[in-house]
Amino acid sequence: MVDVFLVVANGAAGKSATIRALTGARVRGAINVEIGTPRIVRPVWVEIRSLQEVSINEQIAVDNILNSGCGVAIIAMRYGQFRNCNPAQSYINAFETAGMTIRGVCEIGPIGPIATNPPMGAGFHQVVPVQGANTSANQRAAVLRSAWSIT
Length: 151
Fold this sequence. Notes:
Helix content is 30%, strand content 28%. It is of the alpha/beta class. The chain has one domain (3-71, 81-148): 3-Layer(aba) Sandwich (Rossmann fold), CATH 3.40.50. Helix 1 (15-23) crosses helix 5 and helix 2 crosses helix 3 (88-97). The longest helix has 12 residues, at 137-148.
């Protein structure tokens, strides 16, 4: 079972910067992050750039996460379709179909479609709306560290 945390926004909203500030990751892949209560270092699969921006479709995203062996994934996504890739909701559906649990969603900017229609899987935790225009990546990451128990 994989717990998935999503950072979702439109283009140039600060998704990548937020994930870098949150995890310390500089490139996509598996890294060790302190997560949970009590804090335990766990391997986490990180996709810093949005899946649509790097042309990773739903099946490849699912395969990358499952093949990583990580029990947690932090993923950046765009709301809408981009570069022939589907909107965020299509990826969320694919993750849930693959048995992953969406534990948290951060929407950067105005309240978006995920907050108004959140995933309702058994383990879903919360949507964390963060106003992007007036906050730095470090401020957004601080909100998420608290909400998602990630350091």
